[in-house]
Amino acid sequence: MKVNIKAKIVKKEQLKEDIYKYSIEANQIAKDAKPGQFIEIRVLDNIEPLLRRPISIYNIEKETGIVEFIFQVKGKGTEILAKREVGEELDIIGPLGYGTFEVKDYENVAIIGGGIGIFPLYELAKELKEKTNTHVHIYIGFRSKDFIVLEEEFKKVSDELTITTDDGSYGIKGFSIDELKKDAEAKTPNKIFACGPLPMLKAVQEFSISKDIPCEISLEEKMGCGIGACLGCAVKTARSPKDAPEYWHVCKAGPVFNAKDVEI
Amino acid sequence: MNTEVNLAGIKMKNPVTVASGTFGYGREFAEFIDLNKLGGICTKGTSLKPRAGNKPPRVYETPAGMLNAIGLQNPGVEYFMNNDLPYLKKFDTAIIVNACGSTIEDYVELAKVLNTLDIDGVELNLSCPNVKAGCLAFGTTYEGVKEVTSKVRKVLDKPLIVKLTPNVTDITMPAKGAKDAGADGVSLINTLLGMSIDIHKRRPHLANNTGGLSGPCVKPVAVRMVYQVAQAVDIPILGLGGITTGEDAIEFMLAGATAVSIGTGNFVAPDTSIKVIDGIEKYMKQYGIDDINSIVGTVQMN
């Protein structure tokens, strides 16, 4: 069930100059949240900035009721959020989203992410490791060595971890999707999960459809309410006839979609 | 203490409704608030046939407000009557269906269907700035509003409220058009036409280029227009535009609104409408007001 709560910040870490990780006390949200879901944060109890910020859930600690999220400072909303301190309370709605990553036994899974899109993939990998016998291979790509975050954390929740950088300053030079494609020639994954920049998602979508591999992708779009009322965060369905587009919504049908179902 | 109002023949337990397009058909908010507490619900703009809406991005935040160009995405009146209306009827609140169309015939056909439904009233949307046909084509002139409203009036026995656009030189002209055509009330304001540009891409943020501006930033414009319309016509006004607190709602009522709608405020916090109701009661206690109707239009101009 969705709730609107005041959640106390219990831990704050600066992972990079512009990337922050917050741990908040949010029992109800921790209890119900599923991998792939997000929360909406009101950065200040004010009319400016007006709207909440949708931010994906990074880690859920069901036993302690702690929820963690990571975000990059990108505009005035996240700038203010980055100034909030331990002990303060955040006005949060969550868990949000109906389309979530499906956790079950898959045998052999590829999880692929790029840049700040890797954050919602952690909880998924963690649950796959904890709850299933799935072999998890994580591919994460960054611009360069300086942008790499959470390497140790992703190592712990995977059987294999492949890191790529665009410039080759760390790991393998190139894009994560190319490494996934190479590995798939020897051992085809039964399932792919992806979150990251649009060009990466498009490449993953195309690859998964061409190889007939079930694939779930997490999308984002500018949001008004996050709860399905404003119909702002539209995404075009793949079944849309050319002259009659049909739209679903990231906060209602997503944020995680079957890659075959959406046009991105 | 009486908070009950009669808005154009629609009896409501309090003057607070939620605005069309910000509340869906209620379901999304029932998880957070008790819908029975609301004076009324203005539904998502509903058309004769389903509408897909505009390309994304459809929303963009602006200082103390937001732009939207949803494009009236809705499942159509048939879906509404079979799926959403039975759900809404479970609650003790007035149901006002926001009706939109592309042609006069659309509006009339839709009104005929709405006339057969168990609803409390119709809000005729002649003011959406985000669709090419309809709405604004009729909504900006005295004659245009009068023509559509009178044709709808002929087939609709239920209370009829006409929702007006602020994108005009003189808001009292379309208001008079609605009144002269037999409307029972008017609601204002719909969103102000706006635009925001991504300076890095040198393109508008919205796929539709322009969109409707709403939120606290439009409130003074809305209050001014409600006052002007209240001076010009003698039918009840449903006032809206940037209301997020009880104080905001009181301001609209002093300017001449019999009731108010909470719009964008619903996105900021799902319980905004309930807080507005509480805020109105607090104001009544503070000033010893026994009947909320007694303050409507009582602003003293300088």
Protein architecture, described:
The complex is a heterodimer of chains A (264) and B (302). Chain A has helices spanning 27-32, 76-81, 119-131, 151-156, 176-186, 198-210; strands at 3-16, 19-25, 38-42, 53-61, 66-72, 89-96, 108-114, 135-142, 160-165, 172-173, 191-195, 215-218, 234-237, 247-249, 256-258, 262-263. With 264 residues, chain A is of the alpha/beta class. Chain A folds into 2 domains: 3-96, Translation factors (Elongation Factor Tu (Ef-tu), domain 3); 108-215, Rossmann fold (3-Layer(aba) Sandwich). Chain A starts with a strand and ends with a strand. The mean pLDDT of chain A is 96. Chain B is an alpha/beta fold and 302 residues long. Chain B has a single domain (5-54, 71-195, 215-295), classed as Alpha-Beta Barrel (TIM Barrel), CATH 3.20.20.70. Chain B has 10 helices and 16 strands. In chain B, the strands form 4 sheets. An 8-stranded parallel barrel of chain B has the order 3-4-7-8-9-10-15-16, surrounded by 5 helices. A 4-stranded antiparallel sheet of chain B has the order 5-6-14-11, with no helix packed on it. In chain B, strands 1-2 form a two-stranded antiparallel ribbon. Chain B starts with a strand and ends in a 16-residue tail after the last helix. The mean pLDDT of chain B is 96. Chains A and B meet through strand 13 of A and helix 1, strand 5, strand 6 and helix 9 of B.
Name its key features.
heterodimer, A: alpha/beta, Elongation Factor Tu (Ef-tu), domain 3, 2 domains, 16 strands, B: four-stranded antiparallel beta sheet, 10 helices, 32% helix, 20% strand
Provide the fold topology:
The complex is a heterodimer of chains A (264) and B (302).
Chain A: E1 3-16, E2 19-25, H1 27-32, E3 38-42, E4 53-61, E5 66-72, H2 76-81, E6 89-96, E7 108-114, H3 119-131, E8 135-142, H4 151-156, E9 160-165, E10 172-173, H5 176-186, E11 191-195, H6 198-210, E12 215-218, E13 234-237, E14 247-249, E15 256-258, E16 262-263
Parallel strand pairs in A: 7-8, 7-11, 8-9, 9-10, 11-12
Antiparallel strand pairs in A: 1-2, 1-6, 2-5, 3-4, 3-6, 4-5, 12-15, 13-14, 13-16
Chain B: E1 5-7, E2 10-12, E3 16-18, H1 27-30, E4 40-42, E5 59-62, E6 65-68, H2 77-88, E7 94-99, H3 104-115, E8 121-125, H4 136-139, H5 142-155, E9 160-163, H6 172-180, E10 185-188, E11 192-195, E12 197-198, E13 203-204, E14 210-214, H7 219-232, E15 237-240, H8 246-255, E16 259-262, H9 265-268, H10 272-286
Parallel strand pairs in B: 3-4, 3-16, 4-7, 7-8, 8-9, 9-10, 10-15, 15-16
Antiparallel strand pairs in B: 1-2, 5-6, 6-14, 11-14, 12-13
Helix pairs in contact in B: 3-5, 5-6, 7-8, 8-10
